[in-house]
């Protein structure tokens, strides 16, 4: 009798296990992220690396279009006045031009708004690197009290209450409800298409167009890459085939110190608790930097000339100052040449709508089966000599 009871318990246990696995699988299907439709391959502009592998899986025109509209959707803020595009304006190279971000009701942030152009290449997001990936980044501003100030469940409910959005999410993802995962996945898909390069520097250094840079910019490039004179490339890196102009790491420059010589923002330290990270912030890319003032994590420097002068002075001394920061012996002409070089990093801004339109006579986006994993291929000319 006891043996029969044990067998019945085992059979019931196996049955519940099967049912539980089935429910998990069903839940996964209901929140699937693999989009429907024809896949697209993004053209990578001259000067940028091959896109990360995950970017080449399951980008579709419909998904990108949905993400673009969500990026511009003010209903994702508590009072319906702000969207992602309010701070990341396409006409402003996806920044807002303010010293620090301004949220719902005029709430003041504490940090400058970084551009989302080329953000697909940066694993660590935000100035302090507190999240990994564009999906996690997209969640932050929606719920932040100083930004869009809308709880995630309310954001999802607002979209779910709109028949047009219900239809579009179903067209992109198939069956199942609108979820936060699907919402941020779509926004991140749009952001992955925001690529900007093919600047005068790229055409000179990677394309072999010797006339692309004038003499001042060439002199500035020489200073930028010289470890003694400028040492800029120690953190704003330039590779032999492509350049993001950032090492993706965190450095203390002494920016944002008060009159008592204390750091007003502890930066990366707030995430790691490591003393070496006190006052350290992620190295920003310098692409299109001439178009995106003000500068530094707190927006405290208004012009590139001020930035160069700050570095010439060796930053602001503090116990965690990065060892690469030291006073530089640069003349006024040297500094002007550096600014000329930085101006040459302005590339071609293309948003997703323009890229989707460039399907004829262009390699911008090609259709491929969604199950494929296309990898952008490019040939790079050797950097010009001299």
Describe, in plain words, how this protein is organized in 3D.
Helix content is 35%, strand content 4%. It has helices spanning 2-30, 61-71, 84-87, 134-143, 152-160, 163-173, 180-192, 200-205, 215-225, 269-272, 304-312, 332-343, 352-357; strands at 39-42, 124-125, 131-132, 250-251, 281-282, 365-368. It is mainly α. It is globular and about 65 Å long. It starts with a helix and ends in an 18-residue tail after the last strand. The strands form three sheets. The protein has a two-stranded antiparallel ribbon with strand order 1-6. It has a two-stranded antiparallel ribbon with strand order 2-3. Helix 11 (304-312) crosses helix 12 (332-343). The protein has 13 helices and six strands.
List low-confidence stretches. 5-29, 355-386
Strand order of the largest sheet: 1-6
The share of residues in helices is 25-40%
Q: How large is the share of residues in beta strands?
A: under 5%
Give the number of helices: 13
List SSEs in N-to-C order: HEHHEEHHHHHHEHEHHHE
Average pLDDT reading:
85
Q: In total, how many beta strands?
A: 6
N-C termini distance: 92 Å
Main beta sheet: strand number and arrangement? 2 strands, antiparallel
Oligomer: single chain
Instruction: Specify Rg, calculated over alpha carbons.
Output: 24 Å
Shape: globular
Broad structural category: mainly alpha
